[in-house]
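STRUCTURE:
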């Protein structure tokens, strides 16, 4: 087993990784920016290194220097920042360190959405109608959209996390959105390549947790439902999906395994799909080559610790659970963000009150505490409120009580939105799609 671990991340995910590592007796090293010096993850690590300015979590040289200075044996990237940077993964291994993640080649292959689509199609994984090559000009985009049929999704090929995406209903809007997405992609990702893909007005977002094992096998755990979104970014996830029956589950898990095998995947990853609720057809969306924000709901219905499994795989050891065993119960995750609950605009600030709910089936993975400050430099996620119940109705009941009991004062927060969602008839029915938030607003 790995003996010392540097966490190249911040906030709740750094704290989450530290918790498992300490339970396993692994020495933990936290890097932190000047802006994060007072956050709980810094105090909870065995050793800390200040790497400077707020943007330093993307500074590969500073992180590798911290690893060398502290004698770290391995690096866990969390999610975001450098977690899906193939060059960083390669540099970690070139420095003689263990990378707690997939091979750099797999990250690179899945990092470009067009390349990923083509790889998946060649492997037999269903993909939505779309371009096989970047639409290099707006005229090429118009030609592709005419062949695919409107509406279409205009996507940054190098994007991720719901960023760099826009819907075009006709040629006029396509010309406008193409220029916007291309400019955004160049600015954010350094790559202006654009993909044109069929847009499904009513669709569900379902994903599968995979693990590439040390012995070369790829296994799929259960699926997660991620259709409650704002601006194509997830707010609520649940597992299992209320839209997936046993037959569909078998098909979608098999496709996820095929996807992982196509790139010789190792460690934790997620195969994301779009599901047509009317036909039961699903299409590959992307593969996230890292641990997902929503991994706790999979942990709860399987009774496992995915960070522990990541460390075991990175150490060359077998996993410690039976992936063929039946799941039990139902889990829901609510992303508690520092944002306006109506328009979802960021609202950072100093935390005056922070009281987390407790009780049976209640788990809170948080990055903040009373007296800390949510700064404007990072994603607005403050905590993940995770509920586990005997069934979906039980999990929802626990979610209502936990939302009511979570006390936050200082930054704006979206707890009022969750209180509204948990009474929404469409959500309660389980028959909802990615448009649910816009219909509520």
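SEQUENCE:
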């Amino acid at each position: 087993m790995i003996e010392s671990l540097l966490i190249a991340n911040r906030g709740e995910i750094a704290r989450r990784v530290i918790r498992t590592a300490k339970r396993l007796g692994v020495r933990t090293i936290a890097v932190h920016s000047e802006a994060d010096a007072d956050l709980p993850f810094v105090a909870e690590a065995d050793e800390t290194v200040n790497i400077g300015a707020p943007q330093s979590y993307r500074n590969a040289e500073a992180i590798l220097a911290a690893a060398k200075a502290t004698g770290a044996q391995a690096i866990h990237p969390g999610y975001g920042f450098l977690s899906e940077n193939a060059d960083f993964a390669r540099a970690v291994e070139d420095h003689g360190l263990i990378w707690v993640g997939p091979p750099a080649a797999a990250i690179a292959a899945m990092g470009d959405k067009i390349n990923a689509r083509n790889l998946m199609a060649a492997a037999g994984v269903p993909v939505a109608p779309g371009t096989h090559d970047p639409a290099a000009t707006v005229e090429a985009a118009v030609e592709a959209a005419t062949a695919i049929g409107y509406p279409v999704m205009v996507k940054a090929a190098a994007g991720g996390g719901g960023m760099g995406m826009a819907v075009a209903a006709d040629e006029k809007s396509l010309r406008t959105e193409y220029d916007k997405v291309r400019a955004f992609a160049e600015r954010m990702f350094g790559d202006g390549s654009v993909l044109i893909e069929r847009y499904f007005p009513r669709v569900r977002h379902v994903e599968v947790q995979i693990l590439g094992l040390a012995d070369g096998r790829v296994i799929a755990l259960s699926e997660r439902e991620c259709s409650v979104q704002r601006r194509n970014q997830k707010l609520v996830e649940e597992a299992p999906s209320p839209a997936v029956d046993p037959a569909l589950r078998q098909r979608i898990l098999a496709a996820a395994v095929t996807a992982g095998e196509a790139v010789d995947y190792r460690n934790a990853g997620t195969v994301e799909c779009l599901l047509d609720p009317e036909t039961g057809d699903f299409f590959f969306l992307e593969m996230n080559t890292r641990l997902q924000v929503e991994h706790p709901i999979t942990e709860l219905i399987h009774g496992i610790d995915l960070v522990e499994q990541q460390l075991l795989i990175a150490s060359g050891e077998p996993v410690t659970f039976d992936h063929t065993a039946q799941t039990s119960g139902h889990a829901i995750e609510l992303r508690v963000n520092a944002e306006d609950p109506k328009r979802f605009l960021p609202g950072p600030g100093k935390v005056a009150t922070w009281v987390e709910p407790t009780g049976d089936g209640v788990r809170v993975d948080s990055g903040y505490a009373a007296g800390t400050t949510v700064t404007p430099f990072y994603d607005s996620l403050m905590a993940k409120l995770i509920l586990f119940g005997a069934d979906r109705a039980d999990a929802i009941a626990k979610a209502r009580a936990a939302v009511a009991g979570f006390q936050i004062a200082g930054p704006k927060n979206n707890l009022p939105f969750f209180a509204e969602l948990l009474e929404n008839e469409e959500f309660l029915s389980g028959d909802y799609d990615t448009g649910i938030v816009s219909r509520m607003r």
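REMARK: Residues 171-189 form the longest helix (19 residues).
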